Amino acid sequence: MSLYEGIPEEYPVFLAGLKVRIREAQTRAVLSANRELILLYWHIGKEIVQRQEREGWGAKVIDRLSADLKREFPDMKGFSSRNLKYMRSFARAYPDEEFVQEVLAQITWYHTVTLLDKVKDPVQREWYIRRTIANGWSRNVLVHQIERGLIRREGRAVTNFSETLPAEQSDLALQTMKDPYIFDFLRMGETVRERELERGLIDHLREFLLELGVGFAFVGSQYRLAVGGQDFYLDLLFYHLRLRSYVVIDLKVGEFIPEYAGKMNFYLSAVDDLLAHSSDNPSIGIVLCKAKNRVIAEYALRDMARPIGVAGYVLTSSLPEELAGRLPTVDELEEELERGEG
Questions:
Q1: CB-side exposure of 323: number of CA atoms within 13 Å?
Q2: For 105-160, what is each residue's pLDDT tens digit?
Q3: pTM for this predicted structure
């Protein structure tokens, strides 16, 4: 007798529902265990801080505490002297227990330690915490975003999103934009051609998607659109799962010129008519240029009917931290350019 013989028709739906419920329970169990661990570490750190401040306990106490806790709880990891010092730093950095319980408990201890090490400003640290929670970043992705200075690049591109999209979608779309985009996985000279740039991005699609941000699903490169008996080709076409819209990327190796905005407006009209479903939101265009004049880009987008953003990109190899820290920021470069134009 077959295992599936005599099974009711609604069984697959029943099974699918159970699978979802079991996975949700597993996730809750993991989050619950993580929450308890984070709170435990916070309380240990707080006790150490209070004892050192009130009673003047020195650093040797941490070494002794580490040895005693490891002896008492041999199966538990995390009681090294180094980790206890991180717990102390953790409690000092986040004195509000409610914030620890409601926000920090949603990320792992490894995320927390990374943020303590790499982000000294409390406001910036919270920004990365909330982005980690919203985007589900692993620790490695978090490190990648910190080292790329995401907080300084997100939402900096010139766009007309606030005029062409509903407020909620406009805010989310703006979060997907960076300026500049950094492509350090490409080994190309200054004379790179557009097709070479496109090929490089496709060859390193995983890294490219990481730089674009969460939610982008790749549809195709040189995607053909037939309009009015002619063929037109989109450099890169994505679908953004959270925005529920197509995203067209047009690559340019030179400086932005106003004609690029008109061309993108045409592409978006065609994509909305030929590809988008009736339930999709308006398609979004991103013009990626080697350089841009911010004022020209703003004028070019001002009266466009379709949502378009203009951003720059940087082709670079990885730089040592001591050199990267001495490079001028995007703000400093723009200020220098504006002084030169004056």
A1: 5
A2: 999 999 999 999 999 999 999 999 999 998 888 898 899 899 889 999 888 899 99
A3: 0.70
**Of 41, 38, 47, which is closest to residue 101 (Cα–Cα)?**
38
* Contacts (Cβ under 8 Å, ≥6 apart) of 220: 234, 236, 237
Residues in the chain: 342
Task: Tell me the C-alpha distance between 215 and 131, whole Å.
Answer: 13
